[in-house]
Amino acid sequence: MVAAIAATMMLRPPSSKRTWGFARIEVVAALGQAALLLVVGTYAAVEGVRRLFEPTQVPGTELLVFGVIGLVANLAAMGILASSREANFNMRAAFLEVLNDALGSIGVIVAAIVIATTGFQRADTFAALFIAALILPRAVTLLRETTRVLMEFTPEGVDLDIVRAHVLELDHVTEVHDLHASTIGTGLPVISAHVVIDDECFESGHAPQILEQIRSCMKEHFPVSFDHATIQLETTALRDRTCHAIQHA
């Protein structure tokens, strides 16, 4: 349900008040689902440990019926989501949630068979612990990745020191400052920078060519392609005035 709502909202076009539209709603939805999976996985682990010391009677036949019904439903959902599970954070979270349910159903079926054939009541406990061990690491990974986006950390695989050094290698570029990079949503990395170039470039009219070189550099030379690059070209005099104003603010 959460994934469906988020996917629908993402289709809304940008506006003057929401310039990126609802592109980041997928990250918010995925964060919520990852947090929920983390809670469910933790609960399963805690409950499993408790049942190790306080075993309860579990009806094997009824457990098997519910497990089979749940597995069929979850396999159908996984089939629908499988092709798009890497499309964005939202779909990854939705697939992970369905996978969690499917693993739970498999665990229930296995536990039910063991209980029905051997009478070993702790089978469901071990199944719960096994499922928790599979789900928790994936939930933590998704939680960490979505948090990185919301905190506007530099995109994975991008070293801004390398970006800065690469831009500084371009002719007439003397300084790069206020360099920032983040991710709005899946497939939408953005970068911005103030680039100081020789004053003569403005006088000779070569500044647009340098700007194009910088944009091409940021789009083609790094592991992440920055199609959205906001570059402010500055003269040395403008840089000095800006620094002076900041120091005396």
TrEMBL record:
Q: Which ranges carry the Cation efflux protein transmembrane domain?
A: 2-151
Q: Which SUPFAM superfamilies match?
A: Cation efflux protein cytoplasmic domain-like, Cation efflux protein transmembrane domain-like
Q: How does it sit in the membrane?
A: Multi-pass membrane protein
Localization, UniProt: Membrane
Task: Drop me one GO molecular function for this one.
Answer: zinc ion transmembrane transporter activity
Mind telling me which residue stretches traverse the membrane in this protein?
63-82, 94-120, 126-143
Question: Which Pfam families does the record match to this protein?
Answer: Cation_efflux (PF01545), ZT_dimer (PF16916)
User: What cellular-component terms does GO give this entry?
Assistant: plasma membrane
**Alphabetical list of InterPro entries matching this protein:** Cation_efflux, Cation_efflux_CTD, Cation_efflux_CTD_sf, Cation_efflux_TM, Cation_efflux_TMD_sf, CDF/SLC30A
Gene3D superfamilies of this UniProt entry?
Cation efflux protein transmembrane domain
- Cation efflux protein cytoplasmic domain residues are 155-234
Q: Does the keyword Ion transport apply?
A: yes
Keywords for this entry?
Answer: Ion transport, Membrane, Transmembrane, Transmembrane helix, Transport
Q: Which PANTHER family match?
A: CATION EFFLUX PROTEIN/ ZINC TRANSPORTER (PTHR11562), RE54080P-RELATED (PTHR11562:SF17)
Protein family (similarity comment): Belongs to the cation diffusion facilitator (CDF) transporter (TC 2.A.4) family. SLC30A subfamily.
Name used for this protein in its record: Cobalt-zinc-cadmium resistance protein
